[in-house]
Amino acid sequence: MSQCRICSSTVREFLDFGSHPLSSAFVSPDATGEEFRYRLAVGACTSCGMVQLTEDVPRERLYHKGYPYHSAGSTVMHAHFEETGRGFLARELGGPDPFFVEIGCNDGVTLRTVADAGVRHLAFEPTGVAGGRVHSAFFDAESAAEVRAAEGPAQVVYSANTLCDIPGIGAVFEGADILLAPDGVFVFEDPYLGEILARTSFDQIYDEHVFFFTARSVASMAACFGFQLVDVERLPVHGGQIRYTLARAGRRTPTAAVAELLAEEAARGIGEAAGLDRFGAAVHTVRRDLVALLRDLTAQGHRIAGYGATAKSSTVTNFCGIGPDLVPYVCDTTPSKQGKLTPGMHIPVRPDTAFRDPYPDYALLFAWNHAEEIMAKEQAFRDAGGRWILYVPEVHIV
């Protein structure tokens, strides 16, 4: 048992993945010494329902200038963030001299969309990646107060795939309260626990993802800090996300979508102990089936490659014990990963061009959340007789 990061109540652990390396700590072949490791386990608060990691990893080990993920590498994600920026321009940034703030802009697609419209903007981005005006600091009360004094209040504080990564989330809410205009909105989008449970997408659980949100847990969290959940929107990206819109309590009327999602979660029992335990059992089934399939294909002499050296693939390879003996290499488009070894299991990472030189017989698709985009791009692989191995929601071949 541990203590909830939101309400300080008891957290009941329901799934332990064991010892893991940092998910984005790709290793040089000549530097395969001891890697930093931590225990990857997840539990649920018995009071507010927040599902969360039970142990922390120091943020300075996770986010730095060498951080390898870039959203613009996917055409789907690039379009998603451009559309997000246009939506803010249409709905929230139409007044006189509006100010837009983003927490964790990565390579800045949303930020650049807002900037190109002539709107004042600023991103808090400790990795130092460009894309607009960037403040290389973590977002908290102190940094927010500095910006408020220099820039004035913000109409929107936005975050994508970042808020769920911050253990000290109370400091973010304090910063939002300081920086937001009275009628401003705090908007964030992150993986949705309901989809993770439905898909058995256990690889969404890794060191960077501290929280796994639901409408219920977000509403409870918001209330702890004087905010209110006023809107929710389902997003198809990254295997299923929710965009949550918060405002100061009483400043906006919640949409019908909030009540509908809360009712759906209650009806499905999302976040309840029994469902979480069933999820844990399903995860172990996927591990058993995936390892068995890879061993069988290897014994039959088939050539297997991994596709997408994603952060979440670290959970799969380390939890399942998948190394170069079962998957000799993994192809990825990110130059900073190429020529290195995956964390923990040390599978060589090759450029995406190596995927077709020659094609393997089977490709284990770690980047399954981009399956449609990737399969369209790699149609020649299928034409040559190649087959895709997927493990979400269960192990299967397509």
UniProtKB/TrEMBL annotation:
<dbReference type="GO" id="GO:0008168">
    <property type="term" value="F:methyltransferase activity"/>
</dbReference>
<dbReference type="InterPro" id="IPR038576">
    <property type="entry name" value="Methyltransf_Zn-bd_dom_put_sf"/>
</dbReference>
<protein>
    <submittedName>
        <fullName>Class I SAM-dependent methyltransferase</fullName>
        <ecNumber>2.1.1.-</ecNumber>
    </submittedName>
</protein>
<feature type="domain" description="Methyltransferase putative zinc binding">
    <location>
        <begin position="4"/>
        <end position="63"/>
    </location>
</feature>
<dbReference type="GO" id="GO:0032259">
    <property type="term" value="P:methylation"/>
</dbReference>
<dbReference type="Pfam" id="PF13489">
    <property type="entry name" value="Methyltransf_23"/>
</dbReference>
<dbReference type="Pfam" id="PF08484">
    <property type="entry name" value="Methyltransf_14"/>
</dbReference>
<dbReference type="InterPro" id="IPR029063">
    <property type="entry name" value="SAM-dependent_MTases_sf"/>
</dbReference>
<keyword id="KW-0808">Transferase</keyword>
<feature type="domain" description="C-methyltransferase">
    <location>
        <begin position="236"/>
        <end position="393"/>
    </location>
</feature>
<keyword id="KW-0489">Methyltransferase</keyword>
<dbReference type="InterPro" id="IPR013691">
    <property type="entry name" value="MeTrfase_14"/>
</dbReference>
<dbReference type="Pfam" id="PF08421">
    <property type="entry name" value="Methyltransf_13"/>
</dbReference>
<dbReference type="InterPro" id="IPR013630">
    <property type="entry name" value="Methyltransf_Zn-bd_dom_put"/>
</dbReference>
